[in-house]
Automatic annotation (TrEMBL):
Keywords: ATP-binding, Nucleotide-binding, Repeat, Transport. It holds the Pfam family ABC_tran. This is Ribose import ATP-binding protein RbsA 1. One of its GO terms (molecular function) is ATP hydrolysis activity. InterPro entries: AAA+_ATPase, ABC_carbohydrate_import_ATPase, ABC_transporter-like_ATP-bd, ABC_transporter-like_CS, P-loop_NTPase. Signal peptide: none annotated. Gene3D superfamilies: P-loop containing nucleotide triphosphate hydrolases. It comes from Streptomyces malaysiensis.
Length: 512
């Protein structure tokens, strides 16, 4: 690890030391001898692009995943964190970006779940409410502790999750992108809480892609890239540009441009505006027939929200033109009628019915009724051409789709839209997540084949190299807005990555 500085008294025994952490998944080395050292009373920022290995490392720290190799020490003592319960018992509290609160319980019940004050078997509700109120007040919350969590705004839910960490007396508190759902005032409150926690000697690991936050609240930062810890920075002496360069890597090669002829002519899809207050405000994106338009952005940048809105599945206001007309995309059914198709990020929960057969899954949109009500022969007849065209490998059309490989499952999701016919706009959200290299290449060949038939494709991916290799243009979303559009034939990947992380284009950076 290259150290560009050290922060804090070096003679302190580290509060947390993670050494040589290795975690393998099928086809992926998520952590490659990663290291992280956090001192008592320190706010330590963990930085890296999507897929750098940050989340895996924190899940290992929380006890949710077990490392294949490596050692974890807390205050100098080796620990084995074999479960989330073991992590909490050791003094680790993780506040995930995707909150793990129990939505049907109250704020007070969530804060002291499993730890409520009791007299014998009877919970002391009044005392629980007092303790909850103290924790919520500390994070600056002004909502009642007897409110049901699912009825609260998302910012209040985030503050509840932070308050819960305060009630555990944790030694290490991990905050994963806390500002993604917080306004400026709430973020100020959270920063005050962080400063009070570190003043007590507790340690905070702060994960964020926002350089201004990192520079304001952090003492030191560890940068991860490709599963490795590549550098440690003293934030009092570092610059945002240094951090971004470390995240991107100096050896980033120029992009390999797509060799498809660039589609010309008028746009098929014109996204005039997609707006949901506090989440997304995207304007003036056009996609021509046959064009693959990439959507790049960090987690929380708005890519999934944009695609879901175009598919009629969020509370966003949507103004689009499709081949000159103005469809009302008020529901997924309306979007399908207009010729839109969505391949969602979570194929197993949102794209497939794992217990049903390959044929029934592939024919579901074409049948016009619940697939279990249609005759087997009808489903097979409608599904077989699409499955064959995509090269789906299965033993029988009656085989449960959940038994297929990930790549073949993803092809079945795509097949159900091809089997229906009338496809005009294909929305792809992280379509290659969890696929091996061969399956990725096969899927993109099928996507390009659809584009060659005149389909307009919007492709969202965290893998920037996949976008630059397969998209005709790459739109960058940052904090809910589209901030730039690049031609991967003429723009190097490092420039696009810099905009993805900072929201700045070369022009805006020069002007500042």
């Amino acid at each position: 690890m290259n150290a560009s500085g050290t922060g804090g008294p070096s003679e302190l025994t580290p509060r947390l030391s993670m050494r040589g952490i290795v975690k393998r998944f099928p086809g992926t080395l998520a952590n490659d001898h990663a290291e992280l050292t956090v001192l008592p009373g320190e706010t330590h920022c963990l930085l890296g692009e999507n897929g750098a290995g940050k989340s895996t490392l924190m899940k290992i720290l929380a006890g949710s995943l077990q490392p294949d190799e490596g050692e974890i020490r807390l205050d100098g003592e080796p620990v084995r964190l074999t479960s989330p319960q073991a992590g909490m018992a050791a003094g680790i509290s993780v506040i995930y970006q995707e909150l793990d609160l129990v939505p049907d319980l109250t704020v007070a019940q969530n804060l002291l779940l499993g730890r409520a004050p009791a007299r014998g078997p009877v919970i002391r509700r009044g005392r629980r409410a007092e303790l909850a109120r103290e924790a919520i007040d500390r994070v600056g919350g002004d909502f009642p502790v007897n409110a049901v969590v699912r009825e609260l705004p998302i910012a209040a839910q985030q503050l509840t999750a932070i308050a819960r960490a305060l009630t555990t007396q944790a030694r290490v508190i991990v905050m994963d992108e806390p500002s993604a759902t917080l306004g400026e005032n709430d973020l100020r409150k959270v920063f005050d809480v962080i400063r009070s926690l570190t003043a007590e000697g507790r340690s905070v690991i702060y994960i964020s892609h926002r350089m201004d936050e990192v520079m304001e609240i952090g003492d030191r930062a560890t940068v991860m890239r490709d599963g490795r810890s590549v550098s440690v920075h003293d934030l009092a002496r570092a610059t945002p540009d240094e951090l971004v360069a470390a995240m991107i890597g100096e050896s980033r090669e120029l992009v390999r441009p797509t060799d498809r002829p660039r589609p010309e002519g008028p746009a098929l899809l014109e996204i005039r505006r997609v707006h949901r207050p506090g989440l997304i405000d995207v304007r003036d994106i056009e996609v021509r027939p046959g064009e693959v338009a990439g959507l790049a952005g960090l987690g929380g940048a708005g890519r999934t929200t944009l695609l879901s809105a175009l598919f009629g599945d969020t509370g966003a206001s949507v103004s689009v033109r499709l081949d000159g007309a103005e469809p009302r995309l008020s529901s997924p059914a309306a979007a399908v009628r207009a010729g839109f198709a969505l391949v969602p990020e979570n194929r197993k929960e949102q794209g497939l019915m794992p217990g049903l057969s390959v044929a029934r899954n592939a024919a579901v949109t074409a049948l016009g009724r619940p697939p279990w009500l249609a005759p087997h022969t009808t489903g097979r007849r409608r599904a077989t051409p699409a499955l064959s065209g995509l090269g789906v490998k299965y033993s029988s059309p009656d085989q449960p789709v959940g038994k297929l490989s990930g790549g073949n499952q993803q092809k079945v999701v795509l097949a159900k839209w091809i089997a229906k016919g009338g496809l005009r706009v294909l929305l792809l959200d992280e379509p290659t997540r969890g696929l091996d290299v061969g399956a990725k290449a096969d899927l993109y060949r099928q996507v390009r084949h659809l584009a060659d038939q005149g389909v307009a494709v919007l492709l969202a991916s965290s893998e920037l190299n996949e976008l630059t290799a397969n998209a005709d243009r790459v739109w960058v979303l940052h904090e809910g807005r589209n901030v730039a559009c690049y031609d991967p034939r003429t723009t190097d990947e490092a420039t696009i990555a810099h905009t993805v992380i900072t929201g700045e284009t070369p022009a805006t950076k020069a002007a500042s």
